[in-house]
Amino acid sequence: MFVLDEDYFLAQFKGLLDIDSTTGQFREIQDYLVREIEGLGFPVSVTHKGGVIADLGGEGNCLAVTAHVDDIGLMVRHLNADGTLNVCPVGGLYPFYCVTENVRVHTRDGKVVTGSVCRTPNSIHVTEEELRAAPGDFRKNVCVLLDEDVKSAADAAALGIESGDMIALEPRLTVSNGYLKSRFIDDKANAALLLCAMKAVRDGGTRLPRKVLAYFSVYEEIGHGTTVLPEEVRDILAVDIAPTGPQQTSDERKVSIFAKDSRYPYHYELTNELRAAAKRAGVDYVMDVFTPHYGSDGDTSVAAGHDVRHACIGPGTQNSHGYERTHMDGLRNTYALLMAYITQE
């Protein structure tokens, strides 16, 4: 069975988490990936809108393995009269999963201003009962409170903040007893696994029986990550989180092979190939169906009209789109299945 280089994985995961990359804000993480891929010795190119594609070698019947490096976050909608920021979500972020989180506001001129997501009013002791009970709503009672001496919209504007500025959430990575807790396990943990696979191919001098591309997309969270594909691609395999839940078989210690999500069934034959590879390699896997609110970059390519087979695998993950949690065993199994599949004759 293929063994994950956990030191390299954690280093890459932390490196990716250290870069704020709310969907649309891709340049810094794109540059990081290009440097890392060039350091591994693989040819690399970038798409016009921001994706990164590495050529791992091999000949014919091209497979693209994709993981995304964009994060859900917030955007400044307007400056409130009291100097707080009215915000709107970028990607599937909900108030109940981010109220009290620390954030960084990125101005268009490159300045970073820290703050936190708060309810309005923000102190429970001086909030009337009916307001306490009201659900959080970005339009009405959730704002960003800046770590600055601001008392008016003009004060906030004087900091260089304006409508349309990106707001990134603090990831807060911790590792305990094999469990990883962080924002953006979806999908920076799997992007780190893809870099680990690339390093293993290089270090092992692995001969790939087909051409393999590693595709790091930057718009998955809003639904158009891999609408652009090289014409040679025949199959696309997304590596993304497998959300856990009461009716799910997904498990933090296992890799899930996706049979269907909220958009489409995954390609039946490609899914069976992954299942067979997992069995041959002794990978601890489960099959699962993800509805009603899940989709992957494999779906994106199919919806864009590409004539490709699509599939998705990933580690079981708790609290999706919130403060997420998975286990190193699930990441090990995901890596092992990925390596078993791309190297099988």
Task: Write structural notes for this entry.
The protein has helices at 6-17, 27-40, 129-133, 153-158, 185-204, 268-281, 297-303, 328-343, and strands spanning 44-46, 52-55, 62-68, 73-79, 85-90, 102-106, 112-119, 142-146, 166-169, 174-176, 179-182, 212-217, 233-239, 242-243, 255-260, 285-289, 309-317, 324-327. 27% of the residues lie in helices and 28% in strands. The strands form 3 sheets. Strands 1, 2, 3, 12, 13, 14, 15, 16 and 17 form a 9-stranded mixed sheet that branches. By secondary structure, it is of the alpha+beta class. 47% of the residues are buried. The chain folds into 2 domains: 6-71 and 184-343, Zn peptidases (Aminopeptidase, 3-Layer(aba) Sandwich), CATH 3.40.630; 73-169, Elongation Factor Tu (Ef-tu), domain 3.
Order of helices and strands: HHEEEEEEEHEHEEEHEEEEHEHEEH
Structural class: alpha+beta
Helix content: 25-40%
Mean pLDDT: 96
**Straight-line N-to-C gap:** 16 Å
Whole-number count of domains: 2
**Under the CATH scheme, which class of the largest domain?**
Alpha Beta
- Poorly predicted regions are none
Write the CATH homologous superfamily of the largest domain: Zn peptidases
Number of strands: 18
Strand content bin? 25-35%
Task: Describe the main β-sheet briefly.
Answer: 9 strands, mixed
CATH topology annotation of the largest domain: Aminopeptidase
Using the 3D structure, state the CATH architecture of the largest domain: 3-Layer(aba) Sandwich
Supply Rg.
Answer: 21 Å
What's the overall geometry? globular
Per DSSP, the total helix count is 8
